[in-house]
Write a structure and sequence with these properties.
The chain is mainly α. The chain has one helix and no strands.
């Protein structure tokens, strides 16, 4: 089976895509966290643990 060798340009494009996807995922995590805190409210941290 022959392996496909990527050119430097293709490797750079793949890396840039991976970084962009990672940044979008991190942004979505922060966005969902912020939306949850806003919806539930900060009082959730003051409830006693059972």
């Amino acid at each position: 089976m022959d392996k496909v060798e990527l050119t430097d340009k293709q490797k750079r494009a793949r890396r840039n895509r991976s970084i962009a996807i990672g940044l979008v995922l991190a942004f979505l995590v922060v966005l969902f966290y912020a939306a949850t805190v806003i919806k539930i409210g900060p009082e959730i941290m003051n409830k006693p643990l059972y």
